[in-house]
Amino acid sequence: MVPDVEGAMTQRHPDACQVLFDAAEKAGANCVRGVEDVSVVTSESFQCVTFKVEGSVHEVRCRLVVAADGRQSVIRRQLGIELHTDEPHHLFSGLLVEDADGFPADLQVIGSTDEVHYLVLPQGSGRIRLYLGFPFSDRHRYTGEVGVRNFLDAFDTPSFPYAKEIVNSTPISPHATYANEDAWVDEPFAQGVVFIGDAAGWNDPINGQGLSITLRDVRIISELLTSMSDWSPSAFSEYATERRVRMSNLRFAARVASKLNNEFGPEAVERRVRAKTRMAEDPMLGLAQAVIMIGPEHAPEGLLGANTWEALFA
Ligand SMILES: Cc1cc2nc3c(=O)[nH]c(=O)nc-3n(C[C@H](O)[C@H](O)[C@H](O)COP(=O)(O)OP(=O)(O)OC[C@H]3O[C@@H](n4cnc5c(N)ncnc54)[C@H](O)[C@@H]3O)c2cc1C
Q: What pLDDT, in 10s, does the model give residues 177-234?
C-alpha cells in the first residue's frame, strides 16, 4: 500500500510500523495483525466493527472508530465520504536498490535533468532509495518490463555524481509509480468515526511529509479524546480546521516543487534558476519550500497563496 522505505530521514516504513505497533502494545492496546474484511456500522450510541482474522469473524463495539486505513480507506468508502484530488502534475516512481557500495552513505542527492527529477537517499550498507519524477508522457519509458532498466539509466547524466553505482546496482523492491496529486475530504470525521493519516487525505509524496502528517493527526486526536468527554462529531471540527490549513500549506509547497523541479526544457530551466534565486534573496519566498522543514502549521497566514506564486514565477 505504501513504499517500504520513507525518504528524508531514511527511516524504513516497516521499521516505523513495528516501533509504533510495539509502543501501542506496551501502552495496553490489544493489537491484531492480518485483519481482513473490515466493516463498520455506526450509530449515535455505539459503533460496531467486524473483521476477520485467520478465518474467524470478530465483532467489537466501541464509542469511536479512529480510522487509519490508508489511501484506499475501506471505512471512508463504506461511509460514503467523498475523496477529492487535485489534478496530478507528473508521475513519481520509487525503487530500493542494493550493491551500491561505492556510493557515499552520507550523501543525499536531489536534482533535475532534461527529462527527470531525481532523488537519491542512501540507507546504509550499499542500499539506496531512488525516486524519479517524470511527465505523464514518459510513463511507458519508466514503467512495465523495460521500466526498471530505464529508471536506473536515467541517473546516468553529467549532473549526477556516482552514476555508475546506480546504473550497476541491484533492484530489490517492487517498482511502484504514483501520480503526485494531493487528496482530501471535506470533513475528516462522521458520526462515530474520525479519520487520520492518509485515510483523511494525503500530500504529494515529494514533500516526504506522510509520517509527520499522520503523527500530528494522532497527537491532536489523542489530546482531544483525553481532554473531553464529548466525542460527538462536533468535537472534531477544530481538528478539521487545523488539518485543512496544514494540508493546504503542504499542497502549495508541493505545487511549487512540481513547478520548480518537474518541468523540463530550456524555459523550465530558466524558471527554476530565477525562482531559486528569488527564494535565496527573500527568505519569505524561501518559506514556500522551507515550510516542510519548519512545519506547515507555522507558515504565516496568507503567505502561501497567489502573491507568493506570482513573486516566484512571474
Ligand atoms: C511514493 C511515495 C513516497 C513516500 N515517501 C514518504 C517519505 O519519504 N516520508 C514520509 O513521511 N512519507 C512518505 N510517503 C507517505 C507515507 O507512506 C504515508 O503518508 C503514511 O504511510 C501514512 O500512514 P497511514 O498510517 O495513514 O497509512 P498506511 O501506512 O497506508 O497504513 C494503513 C494500514 O492500514 C492497513 N489497511 C488498509 N486497509 C485495510 C483493510 N481493509 N483491512 C485491514 N487493514 C487495512 C494497511 O495494511 C496498512 O497497514 C510516501 C508515499 C508515497 C506514495
A: 999 999 999 999 999 999 999 999 999 999 999 999 999 999 999 999 999 999 999 9
Catalogue all structural domains in the chain, each as residue range(s) with its CATH number: 13-84+183-246 (3.50.50.60), 91-179 (3.30.9.10), 250-313 (no CATH)
Ligand 1 proximity of 217 Cβ (cutoff 6 Å): no
> Is the minimum distance from the CB of 51 to ligand 1 under 6 angstroms?
no
Asked whether 189 lines ligand 1 (CB < 6 A), one says no
- Taking the centre of ligand 1 as the mean of its atom positions, its distance from the CA of residue 279, in whole angstroms, is 32
What is the Cα–Cα distance from 289 to 287, expressed in whole angstroms?
5
Please say whether the dihedral angle defined by the alpha carbons of residues 100, 104, 110 and 112, taken in this order, is positive or negative. negative
- Give the tens place of pLDDT for each residue, 80-139: 999 999 999 999 999 999 999 999 999 999 999 999 999 999 999 999 999 999 999 999
Report pTM: 0.93
Region of 10 on the Ramachandran plot (φ > 0 left; ψ -120 to 50 alpha; else beta): left
CB distance 74 to ligand 1 below 6 Å: yes
Q: Radius of gyration (Cα) for the chain, nearest Å?
A: 21
Atom of ligand 1 nearest to the CA of 213: 19
